[in-house]
Amino acid sequence: MARNTSITIGDHFSHFVSEQVRSGRYGSTSDVVRAGLRLLEEHEARVRALHNDAVEPGEHELSAGAGR
Q: What is the domain partition of the chain in residue ranges?
């Protein structure tokens, strides 16, 4: 369900968003924000996967006494 939300992004990002829409790359401010949020979501998923695959096993080994 779509919902309106008000955010403050500052001059730098305001100009960036406006330029993306003006260039025709995106149809609206909402399209730009959604694209950015999708990228952030993908990034966070990769960070979680890296943590689960690399960091967490090492933490378990250390807590079990490995490396002492």
A: 29-68
- pLDDT tens profile 9-64: 999 999 999 999 999 999 999 999 999 999 999 999 999 999 888 877 777 777 88
Distance of CA 67 to the CA centre of its chain: 35
Whole-number pLDDT of residue 62: 76
Taking the C-alpha atoms of residue 51 and residue 44, their distance in angstroms, rounded to an integer, is 10
Query: Each residue of 14-42: b (16+ CB within 10 Å) or e?
Result: eeebeebeeeeebeeeeebbeeeeeeeee
Residue 63 burial (10 A CB sphere; 0-12, 13-18, 19+): exposed
Q: Which residue has the tokens 């993908």?
A: 42
Euclidean distance between CA atoms 17 and 27, whole angstroms: 11
